[in-house]
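The following block was generated as part of the benchmark described in Methods. Ligand: zinc ion.
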Amino acid sequence: MTPQASSAPHRARLLVRGAVQGVGFRPFVYRLAREMSLAGFVQNTPAGVLIEVEGDAAAVALFQARLLAEKPMPALIHGCEVQVLQPSRATGFMIHSSLPGAAKSAGVQPDLALCPECRAELFDRSNRRYHYAFLNCTQCGPRYSVLLDLPYDRPNTTMREFTLCPRCQAEYDLPSDRRFHAQPNACPECGPALSGTSLSDAAWALSLGLIVALKGIGGFQLLADARDESAVARLRLRKHREAKPLALMLPSLDAARALCFVSEDEAALLESPAAPVVLLRPRPGNGIAPNVAGPSAYCGVMLPYSPLHHLLMSLYPFPIVATSGNRSEEPIATGNEEALERLGSIADCFVLHNRPIARPCDDSVARIIHGAPSLVRRARGYAPLPIAVEGPLSPVLATGGHLKNTVAIALERQVVLSQHIGDLESPEAREQFERTIHDLTRLYEFRPEAVACDLHPDYASTLWASRCGLPVVHVQHHEAHIAACAAENHVAGPYLGVAFDGAGLGRDSTIWGGEFFGVDGSSYSRIAHLRAFPLPGGEAAIREGWRAAAGVWFACGELAEVPSALLPVLTRRLNSPHTSSVGRLFDAVASILGLVSGNAFEGHAAMLLERCATACDTSSAYPLEDGDWRPMIGEIRNDLRRGVAHSLIAARFHNALAVWVGEMAHKTKLHQVVLSGGVFQNRYLTERVVALLESQGHVVFVHRQAPPNDGGLALGQAVIAGRR
Ligand code: ZN
Ligand code: ZN
Ligand code: FE
């Protein structure tokens, strides 16, 4: 570049697409341009954030680089288109007011964990927000949980009840301030306040083994001292949550390192703005009551993410159980009155406040798989970030599955996937499901032309779809799983889809869940599957693994192993649908090993088997040629008789599945492999499958944005139906 060229004025137009609104992106652009003495403007438009900058060529180029490198941490940029314009010789840099329709496309930000600067203020005695439980800035604080309507402006949030005091208003109005246009901005003078049990009394209650209900960001949480086995047992009993693992909140990353093994990736995830519950390997003898993690080899840990949590943990710097404020699988409670009523029989005291929660949003759960985060439950901190997909998609509403339900809307080249709603077993959950559909369609002024749902006629989500009056597209469960993973990874061209799952209705009316698909465009051909076996009792078998074991023994011809009560059922094929589900095979093997008598929840047995396998590092595998598990079951029985360790048996079982996937990928000669389904929440299995496939030269795609379990189904349904 010649000196003349670099000093000649240069003007560029940048169109930034993604979730960049409500996180101080425009003020950041403004400050950066001013600092670099560039002229131009920034403006929200329906197509994205539009920036025009003018100055010498080198400065304009540097601006572009710094824009991406220094953007506010929560801003999620999907793309940035650059166009060169005629210089206008204008001076100064301005923030133009938003164009109509900009808010809809800019999307809604998720709730963000307290940022380091606000945290420093929280504990600074000289700061006017010292110990104020509701401080925030453009980099942090509630978003989705306070949003009532778009655009994201204070009168459209639950903060509209609080009038900014002059000092807060001045911060809000000053472009160079960290709180410029921070919609939930507040201080002790003008903002929300705590009520109910005080934080110091709550800390005292925890020390006595009592259960504290705390109104958090996306709903109530139930807290108990995690070192106190009887307190945890009481919480489980009152909440009707027998065995499912409970999440912990620990005061700091150092505390997490003291109690668990924490890799650099896991530390980064714990401290990320989403601040999810991260599944960590506990250190032996860490003092956490054994009934916290239950059957899992992992311990779900999160760090304090709201100022309220930071304050409580500063008063009570010990591990506490922090679980959703609900009874069993009901939706999380959000209102003060509602919580006092619904949680009155669970909690001993209530920490309340008067900032309304616009909608329930549970804590998210994530784990590191193969060096990157993978979500088990996608809610606070992630929802409703749009997932960029190849489009355009027609406007379709997807109603998801039955368990771990989420819903989705297709917005051209993005899919907005709702927060985790839960299992649609209870009337409360089904009500929440309908509320979430209305909420999303209203926020985005979305008018669906069709509704996508599962093939299963009895899912509450399917029944709703068939009643809603729109044309219905039924999407096969495992095709939806695979489509979801392929879509979020932008996989083009033919690929092998591997769906290892609990259960979903197949196209042949049997229960699928161990399927290989050859996928090309919109065509899915089921090219292989796990050898099917009968499942006496059908759906009941999901919670009773011994039924799956009985089906497996029956199919092996080992009638002596089948409980006598089930023999006539199996022989006469009464209510014994056939299944090719890998999840049910996990149940059967866990039951044969005597690890569990009944599944307290779906995935319970798989969790126990994974825990067993994790204790053993071996590459040896049982035979599982063409998905025929009969020889494997025979070998497992022999190993059990010979006294082989459960951990080795469990590891060989996992490895058998991995080797089978490797063989299938080799046979089909498909270069790209897409993995989905609830079984791939299993880290031991997933990492082995990925490593094996990569060693064979395949490119492997796993879920990073949507969960591999049924929480990701709505994304796949939206993509399949939206492309029709
Ligand atoms: Zn902040
Ligand atoms: Zn104020
Ligand atoms: Fe599924």
